[in-house]
Structures are given as structure tokens and as C-alpha cells.
């Protein structure tokens, strides 16, 4: 909200020496007050500018309509979550090959309409991470539909909003160019349009925004784990050796994929999903469940189009465990984030087990990196 107030007043949030009097006034007012953040001006400036340009521009647009209106923020974020629910329903109905009607109802309801994590981190706690998922899945969906213009714009926006759209860019590029006679030309136009749809939001805030990006990335990788990071339980069990465990797990995860690529046993779809999960849910140390959810929900939706049975099982685990952690976190707030960490660990273990199973199943065949094994429609 503080960043939105700066943007709505025409101030560059990333240039901390600009409008110092206004920054001091915003830090000391009662809006979005948080003792830790507001303790020093330097810390307030860092938090107010801690998001990428498109995120801050969204906050600024909301603040321009009604300044410091928490309810309006909540309604806007809920609106985007509702659009995401519609997109999830469309993807499942069009691309998931399910055998029973109840599976469609349960998955559309649990992953979309009544998603326990999005209801908590979107409606109860105003957060906009659902919009990041919407942009990413939207880019991928329109790429599959060969509507490359829409896909390119959404992909660029998904990078400018939270940065994470970059991890599905290769998959989107493949989708818009596959089975096309003018694949090279279309691919070049797609890259140019995506880059333009991303960079246009950065231009007013360059070069200061890059300093923020470097600082945040460093803080989220190098610091001790907190919030819903999968490394929180490891740190609590062994504060001295948690980093050794972390690096060992990361190395094994990477080596598994390098081996699969070398043996040509893994598709581009799985590579993109794994890289997204590796960055968001394994590498970063300081994310709350709303950030971790970007990786999990996006991957479940994409995986289900190729491997419906794994999509169903991972989706059901997500719905059940997500609901339980929301319910148990209310009477036991002291361990709510620890339960979120365990939730993330279970989903990552399932994904890794699924990957190993698929690699074993493909031991007698070769899967090219550009192979997509899913149908393009439910005829």
C-alpha cells in the first residue's frame, strides 16, 4: 500500500532520495502501519519499493481511485482470483482427460473456486499472487490456443509483475511455434512482443529498479529460512548443518534433471515445471505460502494436461493439505507457517516421486526435449 501511495503521487519508489518529506509523512502515518517496517526510514523505503514495476503500478492505480483504501485492494485482488478460477476451470475442462464427472467438479472447486490458499491469501489477507498465477497460466493457455499475441503480452506482464513468468517462457514459445510453417518468424515476433510487454513497465524506473532486484534476490537466497520456506523445519532441527542439507538436496535435484536431459528422458514441459519449482519453492528462503503457491498451483495445472492421473493426485493433495493447514493454522497461529512449510515439503516430495516414476516408465523410450505428450483438445 505504501508503494502504491508513492506511485499515485508520481514518486519513483526505487529512488529513495526523491520526495523525502512525503516518504517521512507516509512512514509515520497510520496507514498500513507495521512497527518493524516503520521503525526506520531506510527500512520503510526498502519495503515500499520491494516489488517489481507492474506490481507497484497496480497498487498506484488502486490508490489513485481511493487512497489508502484497504477494502478496495481486497476487492481488486479477489476479482483477479475470480478470473483465475474461471481460467482454471477452462484448462481442466478443455485439456485434462478425466474419467469421472466428480473429478472435474472436485478439482475445479478445490483448485479454482474454493481454493483454500487463494481464499486465505487473497480474500482474508489481501494479496495479489493470484494475479501472477493468472498471467502465467493465461500466457500458457493462449500459447496452446495459438493466440500468440495475447500470450506474448501476458507473458511479458507476468515477468514485469513478479518475474516468475520467465520460467514458462520456453514452453510458451514452443507452443506458439509448433506445427507452424512460419515457426521462425512467429517465434521472433513472439519474443519481441513479450520483451516489449515486459520492458515497457521497467523504463520509467530504470536503473534504480535493478538495485532493488539484486538486493531482494540476495536476501531471499542467502539469509536464514523464514515464513513458509521448506528449509524452516531443517533449520529448526539442525541450525548448524541446515545449509549443508539444503545444498545437498539442491544438487541431487539438479543432477536428476541433468541425467534425464542427457538420456533424453524428459520433456520440455517437465523441465519448465521443475525449474519453476526449483527457484520458487526450493531456492528462495523467505517466502510465505502465497509465494510458494505460485509454483505449486501453476505446475499442477500444467502437469494435469500431460499426466492427468498425477495431476489429480497432486491436485487432491494440494486441496486436502491446503484446507487442513488453513483450518489448523487458525487455532494454532504459532505453528501456522511451520505447517505451511510441511505442506510445501509434501508437495515437492510428491512431484519428485512423480518425476522419478515417469523417468522409469520412459526407460525403454526416448523423449525429445520438445515433445509434448498431451492432446490439444478434448474432442
From TrEMBL:
The chain crosses the membrane at residues 71-92, 104-124, 148-176, 188-206, 244-261, 268-286, 292-309, 338-359. Keywords: Membrane, Transmembrane, Transmembrane helix. This is DUF2029 domain-containing protein. It comes from Chitinophaga qingshengii. The keyword tRNA-binding does not apply.
Amino acid at each position: 500500500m505504501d508503494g502504491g501511495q508513492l506511485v499515485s503521487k508520481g514518486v519513483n519508489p526505487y529512488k529513495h532520495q526523491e520526495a523525502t518529506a512525503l516518504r517521512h509523512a507516509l512512514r509515520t502515518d497510520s496507514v498500513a502501519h507495521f512497527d518493524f517496517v516503520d521503525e526506520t526510514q531506510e527500512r520503510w523505503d526498502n519495503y515500499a519499493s520491494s516489488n517489481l514495476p507492474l506490481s507497484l503500478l497496480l497498487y498506484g492505480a488502486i490508490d489513485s481511485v481511493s487512497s489508502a483504501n484497504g477494502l478496495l485492494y481486497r476487492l481488486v485482488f479477489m476479482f483477479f482470483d475470480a478470473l483465475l478460477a474461471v481460467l482454471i476451470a477452462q484448462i481442466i475442462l478443455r485439456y485434462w482427460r478425466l474419467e469421472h464427472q466428480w473429478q472435474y467438479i472436485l478439482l475445479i472447486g478445490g483448485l479454482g473456486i474454493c481454493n483454500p490458499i487463494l481464499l486465505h491469501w487473497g480474500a482474508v489477507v489481501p494479496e495479489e499472487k493470484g494475479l501472477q498465477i493468472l498471467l502465467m497460466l493465461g500466457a500458457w493457455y493462449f500459447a496452446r490456443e495459438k493466440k500468440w499475441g495475447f500470450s506474448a503480452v501476458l507473458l511479458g506482464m507476468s515477468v514485469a509483475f513478479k518475474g516468475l513468468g520467465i520460467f514458462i517462457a520456453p514452453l510458451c514459445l514452443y507452443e506458439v511455434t509448433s506445427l507452424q510453417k512460419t515457426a521462425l518468424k512467429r517465434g521472433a515476433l513472439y519474443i519481441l512482443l513479450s520483451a516489449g510487454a515486459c520492458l515497457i513497465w521497467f523504463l520509467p524506473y530504470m536503473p534504480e529498479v535493478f538495485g532493488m532486484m539484486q538486493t531482494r534476490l540476495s536476501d531471499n537466497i542467502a539469509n536464514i529460512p523464514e515464513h513458509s520456506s521448506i528449509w524452516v523445519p531443517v533449520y529448526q532441527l539442525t541450525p548448524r548443518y541446515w545449509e549443508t542439507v539444503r545444498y545437498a538436496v539442491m544438487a541431487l535435484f539438479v543432477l536428476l534433471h541433468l541425467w534425464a536431459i542427457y538420456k533424453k528422458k524428459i520433456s520440455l514441459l517437465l523441465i519448465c515445471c521443475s525449474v519453476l519449482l526449483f527457484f520458487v519453492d526450493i531456492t528462495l528462503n523467505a517466502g510465505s505460502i502465497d509465494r510458494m503457491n505460485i509454483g505449486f498451483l501453476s505446475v499442477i495445472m500444467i502437469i494435469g494436461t500431460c499426466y492427468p492421473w498425477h495431476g489429480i493426485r497432486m491436485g487432491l493433495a494440494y486441496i486436502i493439505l491446503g484446507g487442513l493447514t488453513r483450518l489448523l493454522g487458525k487455532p494454532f497461529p504459532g505453528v501456522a507457517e511451520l505447517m505451511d512449510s510441511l505442506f510445501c515439503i509434501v508437495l515437492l516430495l510428491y512431484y519428485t516421486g512423480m518425476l522419478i516414476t515417469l523417468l522409469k516408465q520412459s526407460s525403454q523410450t526416448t523423449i525429445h526435449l520438445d515433445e509434448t505428450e498431451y492432446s490439444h483438445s478434448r474432442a
